[in-house]
Specification:
It contains 3 helices and 11 strands, in the order βββαββαβββαβββ. The protein is of the alpha+beta class and 132 residues long.
């Protein structure tokens, strides 16, 4: 289960009533900086953790999915943050991403099966992700 770390985040935690917990910055674009406002709207990410808890947060353009989760006060699995350790491995169920690096630590078969590395993946649309 992902843990919420309120000391790391200046976010509002809301229960959406359908089992989804939403983590959002206290002020619009807070933590996203000027770059996000120049590049476009933030992307909405829904994450289903291994225990079945559904979490929602936003990612600014050019922010990795892992950075966005951490900024929202979540504590997902992670280690290297450069795409080599595979600790953050999860499945992309819906949406599009782009990698910051040319060689993320995934095989062609894993990529085809929908596996991604959030530490080096940036959202290019709204996303649905699942940890197993």
């Amino acid at each position: 289960m992902l843990e919420f770390d309120p000391e790391r985040a200046n976010v509002k935690r809301t229960n959406a009533g359908n089992g989804t917990v939403i983590f959002a910055p206290q002020a619009p674009w807070q933590g996203f900086g000027m770059m996000a406002s120049m590049l476009g709207r933030p992307f909405h990410i829904q994450l289903l953790d291994a225990e079945g808890q559904r979490l929602a947060f936003t990612a600014a353009p050019e922010q990795s999915v892992l950075e966005a989760a951490l900024a929202a006060g979540l504590a997902p699995r992670r280690s290297c943050r450069n795409g080599s350790c595979r600790a953050c491995l999860c499945r992309l169920e819906l949406g599009q991403i782009a990698y910051r690096i040319d060689w993320p630590g995934l095989s062609a078969e894993e990529k085809a099966a929908g596996w991604i590395l959030p530490c080096v993946a940036e959202a290019r649309s709204d996303l649905n992700l699942r940890y197993e």
